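Please go through this protein, sequence plus structure tokens, and consider how the sequence yields the tokens. Keep your notes short.
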Amino acid sequence: MRIVSTRAALLLGSATAFAATPAFADEQPERDYLPSDIVVTGDADGYGTDDGLTATKTPTPLIDVPQAVTAITRDQLDDQNATSLNEALRFVPGVSLETGEGHRDEVFIRGQETTADFFIDGLRDDAQYYRPLYNVERVEVLKGANALIFGRGAGGGAINRVSKKAEIGDLRLAGGASVDTHGAFSLASDIGLPAGDALALRLNATYEEFDNHRDVYEGRFIGVSPTATVGLGPSTELVLSYTYDDDQRVVDRGVPAFQGRPLTGNDETFFGDPDYNYSDVEAHIARARIDHDFDGGLSANATVQYAHYDKFYSNIVPSGASDTDGDGIADTVSLGGYESGTVRENLIGQANLVWEGNTGSIGHTLLVGAEFSRQDTDADRDRAIFGAPTDVPLADTIFVPPFTLEFQRASNSELSTLSFYIQDQIDLADWLQVIVGARYDEFDLESYDVGNDFFGSRKDDKISPRLGVIVKPQDSLSIYASYSESFLPASGDQFTVLSDTTINLEPESFETWEAGVKYAPRADLLVTAAVFRLDRKDTAFTDPVQNVVLQTGETRVQGFEASLAGSLTDQLHVNVGYTYLDGEIRSATNSGGIGTELQQLPEHQIGAWGRYDFTDNLGVGLGLVHQSSQFASFSNDVVLPAYTRVDAAVFYTLNDRVSLQLNVENLLDEEYYPSAHGDNNIAPGKPLTAKLGVRFEL
């Protein structure tokens, strides 16, 4: 199936999208590269949400959170012209991107792969699709085990998007457009309407069309997100929101490997069927949240979220390249293929009670919360059966032999969860804080494997503790140490089906030890450094001698990271980070033996972006992404070479309403391969690509 393009008609109007940004006043607005409220608690527009920092669910300054956190603000997203989550995450050290089979977000956080540890406003958004940023205020990456806050999974960390919401008294009419050198473009708008003293409405919407250097790649995205904020009195606020995202695109699985490296010389070649490789996703997310402040330092909030995801994708994929005539040059490529459909419904309810007060001379920020969820998933998959040999000649245009579809699997699953958690942030002295808490999770999964006619059910109960100690020699300096746990049931992060093996397995466990320092030399600048160790245990391993499944597998990732974020001067704004990672299998798993290096775990990562404003009207941006070499999979047979990508930007404010922007990705035209899905689905990076845009606010 090909996607019908309306590019020509839309380009007559203007071209790609910026999510709406703050108004352009008579002079350049302040840039916020660091969430506000890093040192003192208050109602700032930065990191803290209505129930406080995402990492603690309480109004906690970022400097007092005993774990590494990376935040990407709206200003930075706009300056980089990032319109999708994976574009933004490339600049976050400690996070490496999986190609997600060309149809979904999939990441490694401190070496732990996940397709489900994605959240919006602290609530799970775990379907497999590409997440946009048009309705997002900022992106937060919380490193380390995070079960107390997020529940299951989140072993290496969690990614949370803070959504835009209507603000009472806010009137705005903003938007933008841009187009790049490949013809990709989008349009966006952000409209806010005050409707009296106690009601505000806001609508964010976008339309995008995709294109890049790859042959036949195309697609389009439609996003609409209305919100309403209702003041129910001086102490109560209700926020209602709905998001509709409709994504259609060609599924591109990249290039295969050859002789242990990505196949070179075919970076534009499409190793699939342009009439079959296709993805179609519709996502509906509706949410209602109420906040209330009581007297005596007591506050409460409750949220209900319903989500419905309907997804289908089909693809022909490369499974290897070969040299058949012995001249050392690849001349054939092997193909496989399948199609899959998933319908998922999520219902989540969460309530939190926060008390800030004292018992004698000891201060407390006490959190008590509960969460329930229900998740129903129907999934099916058919595989492609070729009528001719699947080894075809390697050429600029790949010949795909005729094929038919054969049933491979189908399943229905119902997952119910119930969670309770408690956490106390204790101020023992002006210079000493302790955070202690635990979460109880109950999981009840029932599934039916249609192909094997197997019905399975399993119930798991887990307690996840968290402990942190923070020493504060001064308000602007924190030295911390922390321990946290998380877990992942054996049915995996998507909970689609139980097998006759996984039905008997206990959840895997994750343990993170971390120590670090956070220093704010000025109110809008934060310097951090941390060392950490993450142990993943109880991983399944099939003993080849006894032919029994044991849960003795263990991996370890340890490392160091440092970051600098905020404003060095009134003109220079930066977000710079470095991570060193060392990970291996310590006890044999089904993925590999002892000493096997973890997949897609670069030893060194650098992500840096900065903006300098020469005048109120003229500014420039410069970015750098570096990853050292890494293995594409646990086989350790294919290496993704090290690379360094340089980006740049120029910003020009025409007047108090209109601003122009030029972004250049891969300024030095580096040939690189940033991510993979296994050994033979390797994504080539974009060549030099320029994007010109305009933003306005009336």
